[in-house]
Predict the 3D structure of the following.
Amino acid sequence: MSTSRRSHSEKEFQRALKVIPGGVNSPARAFGAVGGHPVIIDRGEGQYLYDIDGNRYIDYVGSWGPHILGHRHPRVMASIEEALKKGTSFGAPTLLETELAELVADLVPCVEKIRMVNSGTEAGMSVIRLARGFTGRDKIIKFAGCYHGHVDSLLVQAGSGALTLGTPSSPGIPKGCTADTIVLEYNDVDQIKDTFAKLGDQIACVILEPVVGNMGVVLPEPGFLETIRELCTQHGTVFIMDEVMTGFRVALGGAQLRFGVTPDLCMLGKVIGGGMPVGAYGGKSEIMDTISPVGTVYQAGTLSGNPIAMASGIATLECLRETNPYPQLEAKTQRLTQGLISAATKAGLPHTLAECGSMFTLFFNPEKVTSYAISARNDTERFARYFQGMLDRGIYLPCSQFEANFTSTMLTEEDIVHTIQAAEEVLQEIT
Ligand code: KE4
């Protein structure tokens, strides 16, 4: 559809620009890497988004991951409506918080105890402070291209919007905040072994995305996670898996279950809230009991464990546990990705595709993307043309080459056929 079919969005976006920086409440939505203006969404239903011009899109963003069950799942909506009858927030314990915590502890291998917060970023800042407080050490290891939220000490060569914005390390972060942050190359086993050989007993934690979503989807090479697990155990370093994106997505128990490597702590977000604002961090009781009020590492939050958000998360996770949609969802995703690969091959375009469960990225890059250095060579200009062509055909993709696409249980064979046909047309156009 031509941009005139999105004229209402364009007008309303100009209005937003007057009162919101960049017209968005998160730069990842700004279309900065793909040109044009964001589509203003009116509503979501199942696998579809509808914009304020009345256009329908097949949604492969799913609010950047939460909507594995699709928008407005009846069970999730009913649970939210039920909770709303009792009020919205009390700043006091509720049964719903215990129920969600028990559910997560039952599903996620490393979780013995968990603390709810309101975003993945809040989980990231808290889990770093906890690891440093528990070990008494300051140094942390992260990996280039991994994004753990806009945490001062972690916003160094971060992925996601930071990559797209081309400002890997944001202004406004004092040098002291990142002086103890060691940035290594994802999947480089020798480098992490060398780093531990030199600094092992000074390292508070290693934090990573067990399957990266924020440089596009990048899988751990065989042995990478296992090596980090061994080194952390050997040196008394806390192993943290950031499962904000992979949690309840690549398996019901997350990447730690799928790959059989159990961290000491993990971060959770997105699916855990079913679209409502929930972040969390959890793991071994011995470490989690260092957090206030039991221990002395401080962390707090007015709306943490908000009952409406808890109700949404409980319904989402219970539905996933009872229906186990993962095998079928994975098969659907593979049906789609095979179609995209054959479309790109037919068009003679250099490409690779990485997928895990129901998340994937079609890279405009002839190389298999295993690290940030390789992802940085993606043809982002060609991606921008692909994005716009798909948008015009009613396909809503993440607006950056450095993001993951997500499928939902609501996706149909008809949607998949439509998406592949659109890709065949667009990829021919952009050769
Ligand atoms: P939030 O603070 O956005 O809830 O979570 C931060 C975060 C932490 N860890 C991982 C692995 C993440 O993917 C994220 C957030 N992901 C981005 C998109 N890749 C959210 C979109 C946005 O920033 O608007």
Remarks:
- The longest helix spans residues 326-346.
- Residues 3-60+325-429 form a domain with the Aspartate Aminotransferase, domain 1 fold (CATH 3.90.1150.10).
